[in-house]
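SAMPLE LOG
Freezer: B-3
Tube label: C17
Construct: single chain, 324 aa
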Amino acid sequence: MRRRDLISTVGPAAVWAFAARAQVSPPVIGILFGGSAALMRAGLPAFLSGLSELGFTEGQNVTIEYRVADGQYERLPALISDLVSRKVDVIVPLASRASLAAKAATSTIPTVFAVAVDPVALGLVASLNRPGGNLTGATFLSIELTAKQLELVHALSPSAGTVGFLINPEAPDIAAQTGRAQAAAKALALTLQVVNVRADSELEGVFNELAERHVGALVVGGDEFLASEAARIAALAARYEIPTVYPLRVFIAASGLASYGASLPEALHQAGIYVGRVLKGIKPADLPVVQSSKFELVINLKTAKALGLTVPQSLLLRADEVIE
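STRUCTURE (predicted):
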């Protein structure tokens, strides 16, 4: 049908309404992360999978803007301001620092976070069941697992009387993490050495310090900076022959010894689903914060053998994945 015939059939007003709808741009999601681009990319498939369950596919009917600080956390306020100025439809801050920056930047743009800390204690939401405001999301509460991680490293290296706890002292929940670790060490009759690291340039010196203190085993705390340095931390633990337990599977992909923690992909998948629901018109205040219910124990037998460790059969039977 020719354009003149179409106009005469349905009328000019209807034609212009049709044209306007045809020119509507797809919704825009703004993802904000303070850690490394590599770590963000590792979790992206799970997020996109959740988003696709609600009918949204990047590059087809939704656009995603990525803003990554790459460990330069002081850049987060400027990065989130840029997303706000672009009037994105939904903001997705990954991890605690990005989430705090997003909350400070806007009280109107819907925001769906994925964090490893208690979002109520962090001040992101009023409660898990009734978030209130413009934020909701998924949490995998890694702090609750610190005691289990101490128990795991003790089982893997029972002769180690002194265990290190590697932390970033600038992590928002570091006081709670350290308190849990100290209580768990006391219950296991272990001496806990808390060691701080703020930048990648300090990592070599930190492991040298652990060796000088005769630390026999190590637990790595939960933090996006530490997770972004997974490959280097795992390599240093191997070089200094320190049995180490990690909070996320990403460290085992870098040949770490063992990890016990919540499933990061599950949390990111749920965040993708929530973003899809928000794009369909549901308010964040009406979406309760989802708590991850899947926990993973992963053991790398290759690394255990290189360290001269014998992994107890009881741990192997409990493991969700054993790398041989």
